[in-house]
């Protein structure tokens, strides 16, 4: 039987609040660093509950578009509030735990093998990747490309064609998890520090230490705001 006449989805109230906030920022010419009106004021002006406003702010925070300073208000991180559709967020939240689980299983073994098999060229590639990431962070960027280059260099240093193929098969999902992690406040610097610890262990050919350092890193990557977010019902 056709489902063409199934009930139509109705946007959650907080999604409508998101849309209004996006237009407010665009029409008001607000920029990164500017403060949004307080939740109580937004609720009053929009004619909705504070719960609806709070849920909208949480969605923006999850996406790294605003910074909520406890007791200090909500500030724009970028020059716009071009938020990802909520349904896409829900889908990413659903698949992210499996991706992180796969990363931990694969990348800890890759780090261990890299410590045993790395060449001088492999080490040079890892150092260059971390230099790139450090430069990105210094420029105010999250360090996404440097992060990608480092993990690719570790994978190459393991010299395991089959494990490398497994990594390529989930490359798109890994990119999602990387972007999700590096948008967390303070995370780029922490990731760079953890990468350096992994590199030292690989340089010194300490396989178990490299695996432990990589496992610690991937578990840090797993601590993202998205996984704590509850889409909830219409409020």
Written description of the protein model:
This protein is mainly alpha-helical. It has eleven helices and two strands. The chain has helices at 13-28, 39-46, 50-62, 86-117, 120-138, 144-158, 161-169, 171-182, 187-203, 207-221, 225-228, and strands spanning 66-69, 73-76. Strand 1 and strand 2 (73-76) form a beta hairpin. Helix 4 crosses helix 6 (144-158) and helix 4 (86-117) packs antiparallel against helix 10. The longest helix has 32 residues, at 86-117.
Q: How many strand elements? A: 2
Fraction in beta strands: under 5%
Cα gyration radius (Å): 21 Å
- Strand arrangement across the biggest beta sheet: 1-2
**Order of secondary-structure elements:** HHHEEHHHHHHHH
How much helix, percentage-wise, in residues? 55-70%
Query: Count of helical segments?
Result: 11
Main traits of this protein?
two-stranded antiparallel sheet; elongated; 68% helix; 235 residues; mainly alpha
Provide a quick synopsis of the model.
By secondary structure, the protein is mainly alpha-helical. It contains eleven helices and two strands.
């Amino acid at each position: 039987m056709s489902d063409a006449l199934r009930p139509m989805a109705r946007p959650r109230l907080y999604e409508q609040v998101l849309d209004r906030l996006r237009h407010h920022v665009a029409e008001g010419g607000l920029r990164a660093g500017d403060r949004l009106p307080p939740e109580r004021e937004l609720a009053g002006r929009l004619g909705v509950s504070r719960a609806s406003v709070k849920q909208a702010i949480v969605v923006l925070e999850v996406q790294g578009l605003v910074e909520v300073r406890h007791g200090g208000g909500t500030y724009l991180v970028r020059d716009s509030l071009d938020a990802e559709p909520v349904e896409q967020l829900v889908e990413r939240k659903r698949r992210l735990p499996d991706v992180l689980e796969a990363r931990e299983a694969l990348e800890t073994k890759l780090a261990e093998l890299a410590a045993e098999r790395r060449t001088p060229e492999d080490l040079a590639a890892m150092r260059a990747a971390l230099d790139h990431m450090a430069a990105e962070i210094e420029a105010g960027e999250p360090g996404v490309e440097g992060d990608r280059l480092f993990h690719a260099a570790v994978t190459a240093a393991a010299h395991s064609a089959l494990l490398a193929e497994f990594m390529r098969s989930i490359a798109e999902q890994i990119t999602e998890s990387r972007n999700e992690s590096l948008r967390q406040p303070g995370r780029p610097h922490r990731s760079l520090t953890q990468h350096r610890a992994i590199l030292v262990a690989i340089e010194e050919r300490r396989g178990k230490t490299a695996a432990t350092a990589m496992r610690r890193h991937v578990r840090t990557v797993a601590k993202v705001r998205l996984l704590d977010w509850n889409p909830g019902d219409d409020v």
